[in-house]
Every structure is written in structure tokens, then in C-alpha cells.
Amino acid sequence: MKKLFTLLLIGLLGNFSLSAQNAIEGGITNKAGEGLTEVSITWENTEDAYLNKTIQTDEFGYFMMDDLADGTYRLVVTNATHKTISMDNFEFPRDANLILGLTMESLNETDTAIVRSTPDNNTNIAKVYKQ
Question: Which of 9, 28, 92, 118 has its CB 3.0 to 4.6 Å from that of 22, i.e. a possible disulfide?
Fold first, then answer.
């Protein structure tokens, strides 16, 4: 019985190691560079709504998520005092690490998002306009 339990446990652990573990962390600030609290960051999976994930920033504007499944996502960032930011077509391959820094604007100005993907440290700048 002990051998059977050990084999089942190893089998379960093996299944968990095969699933994707994409990690995302970063900060949300205002134009003055101050961290914004209570900002909701939602990753909407374009193929399966069951895989959607939402997190909130802490008191310093920081957030971290380490369990996003592989796939293509739409990013939606909302806060009661700032305008919504949304970006499409974030693709997460297996075991990606993403550092995301966003500046939210309270007026009708352009938002700039700096996205740095590790480990290759490519930097892309995307401008998001009010819809």
C-alpha cells in the first residue's frame, strides 16, 4: 500500500511539473512615479475564460502572479481614479517571466507601457490610446 501511495504521489507531482508556470510581476504608477494601490490587473485568456486571472496591486503599486497558463491574453488594467488600459495579444509560452511596468494617466493623455521579457531582456514600447 505504501508503494502504491508513493507512486500516486510521484504521478501527481509529475503532472504538476508538466503544466506551465508563467510568472508576471511589476508595478503600476501615476505620472509622478508614485505607486498606485487597488489597481486591478486582469489577464483575459482569448480561448478559455476559465484561465482568466485577476490580481491587485499592493500599497506600493506592486503585483506578482506566478501561475498564468500558456496562451494568448488580453491585459486590462483598471482603477477607480485613472483611465483603463487594455492591450491585446500577450502570448505566454511555457515558463515565461515577464516584468511589466505601466503608468496610468488620469487625463486624456497617452499611456506608455514598457514591457521587458526575461531572460533575453528584449524591450518593447507600446503606446495605448484611450478608446
Answer: 92
pLDDT digits (tens, 9 = 90+) for 55-84: 999 999 999 998 899 999 999 999 988 999
The three three-digit cell numbers of residue 22, written as one number = 508563467
Q: Are 71 and 109 in contact (CB under 8 A)?
A: no
The answer to whether the CB of 11 falls within 8 A of the CB of 35 is no
Distances in Å between the Cα of 86 and the Cα atoms of 9, 13, 83 are: 41, 36, 10
**Among residues 58, 15, 12, which one has the least CA distance to residue 37?**
58
DSSP 8-state assignment for residue 36: P
Helix (H) or strand (E) holding 12: helix 2-18
The answer to whether the predicted template modeling score (pTM) of the entire model surpasses 0.85 is no
